[in-house]
Design the sequence.
């Protein structure tokens, strides 16, 4: 972990409301005078955008290939975007990071959570967020929110999304000092207030 800047990741199932919370937090941080770099994974770089389109909207991909593509996206992203931003003291806010790959490919695809975690850690050089906000929502609610639009991941069966959710919660339970778990079914403003309260405790605000 870098000693400069501050790194925040938002995690959760599809339709949990992560993007909404990212917007709330960025507005609050900018109002407080902080430089904020907002990004997402997969994506966030030219290479990452191409990989995102390939893995979410392209032809069928085997689970192991999928895991490797996501690892490549993160490796590029960390070197090109996240580390330089942290080095100059910015707050980096990302919509998804390594935990998503561990939950989706490790648990959802049954590749083995530890194996995928090791791959992800190697890809990002061991860079861990200072805080990971897990926006937890029941998969059925996430599906309802998404409506009729689904990418390859979102189209998976409920059992897949349930496994993903359970693993997210297990990771958070195992490291409560690094996670904030919020109820994604609550009002967006209430969730945002919880995030700001935690960051105030961390001395960021």
Sequence:
């Amino acid at each position: 972990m870098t000693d400069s800047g501050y790194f925040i990741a938002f995690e959760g199932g599809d339709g949990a409301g992560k993007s909404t919370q990212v917007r709330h937090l960025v507005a609050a941080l900018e109002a407080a005078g902080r430089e904020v770099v907002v990004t997402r994974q997969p994506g966030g770089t030219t290479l990452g955008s191409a990989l995102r389109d390939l893995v979410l909207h392209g032809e069928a991909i085997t689970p192991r290939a999928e895991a490797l593509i996501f690892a490549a996206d993160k490796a590029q992203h960390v070197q090109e975007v996240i580390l330089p931003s942290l080095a100059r003291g910015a707050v980096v806010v990302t919509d998804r990071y390594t935990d998503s790959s561990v939950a989706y490919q490790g648990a959802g695809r049954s590749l083995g959570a530890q194996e995928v975690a090791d791959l992800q850690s190697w890809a990002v050089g061991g860079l861990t967020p200072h805080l990971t906000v897990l926006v937890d929502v029941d998969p059925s609610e996430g599906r309802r929110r998404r409506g009729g639009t689904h990418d390859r991941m979102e189209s998976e069966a409920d059992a897949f999304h349930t496994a993903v959710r359970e693993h997210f919660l297990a990771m958070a339970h195992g490291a409560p000092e690094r996670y904030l778990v919020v109820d994604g079914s609550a009002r967006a403003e209430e969730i945002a207030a919880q995030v700001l309260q935690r960051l105030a405790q961390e001395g960021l605000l």
